[in-house]
Amino acid sequence: MRKYYTRPCNFYYGSYAKKLIKNKKALPLVGNNDVGFDQIEIFIRKKKKIIKSNFYSINKINNLKKSILTIVKKDLKKITSKRKNILGLKFNKPGIIGILNITPDSFSDGGLYLKESKAYKQVKTMINGGATIIDIGGESTRPGSKTIKDTNEWNRVKSIIIKFKKKFKKTLLSLDTRKAFVMEQGIKNGVDIINDVSGLNFDNKSFKIIHSNKIPFILNHMKDSSSVMQNNPTYDDVLLDIYDFFEEKIKFCLKNKYKIKNIIIDPGIGFGKNLEHNLRIMSKISMFHSLGCPILIGTSRKRFIEHIVTKFDTKDRTGGTLASVLYGLSQGVQLFRVHNVKEINQGILVFNKILNTN
After folding, report:
1. Do residues 197 and 311 share a domain?
2. Among the options 302, 311, 315, 342, which is catalytic?
3. pTM score
4. Res 109 pLDDT > 70
5. Is there a catalytic annotation at residue 251?
6. Whether 337 is catalytic
7. Which of 249, 337, 342, 353 does the annotation list as catalytic?
């Protein structure tokens, strides 16, 4: 467990960011000169409790105590380093992951795409709407959901995966599963990325399958199992606890000679978190850049939106989803997992244009 954590903040965008970076008044975020920052927030933790956080100008970092400075400089190297491409996927611009749940009980779209024809049509719609990755899942992991057999899960997604790889060769395919058997079958049939919502904790054979096939994966944080994860979840500090979880998993991967460039991190909004937890993660999400991996968020249609908007809630929660996506974009988040691909893509395009116009 760390004692000090580094979060980049006070961001600038577009040509002004480039000017500040050129004049060494700001640093580039993940190697992107279109986003610069000139402050950091340092969290201090002792005995699992957060003591305080302080803000520092990047020009005054060298005034820090040597014990802190050593850690901050290592973090800044990761924060400012360009993320390497994965399977041609570039992280210098936002990417959209389209969600396709082939399940009867997913919280938002359960039962809508069980028929292959409907699933295939939805894939085409999302690709045409701007999705760079399609994430297919055959088991619901919503709060309170029950685990199904791996063979049943694979049978739900098998035909659409095979058809997808024949028809959409230029679009990356992610498989949303916690089970090694399903991962292995998916990889054999051309799946490009594994999305394990359990963070490698559900099936102890998962990492071996991912590693032996040298396939990129999304490392998600989930507290406990899906059946009980929303039963009064507690943390010492949700932001720092999740950071520690990721750091430990990344160290494990590196120890086993798995390349860090193939890891995408997802803090798991709504997976064992209450409203306060979700808001803290989102508001401070730029801290995860110091892990050195691309960041993904999945806020689409999540219940925390209803908890905020109350009587103004809608079925698709497109407005709330878009607001969270755009905030994440302003903090340098690279990937967004959503249901309403075209609408979110439209919002990103407009927001990015405004953000980078000076």
Report:
1. yes
2. 302
3. 0.93
4. no
5. no
6. yes
7. 337
Boundary of a domain, candidates 80, 105, 127: 80
Give the DSSP per-residue string, 143-188: TT-----HHHHHHHHHHHHHHHHHH-TTSEEEEE-S-HHHHHHHHH
- DSSP three-state, residue 337: strand
**pLDDT tens by residue, 162-183:** 999 889 989 999 999 999 999 9
Number of domains in the chain: 2
> Are 51 and 140 part of one and the same domain?
no
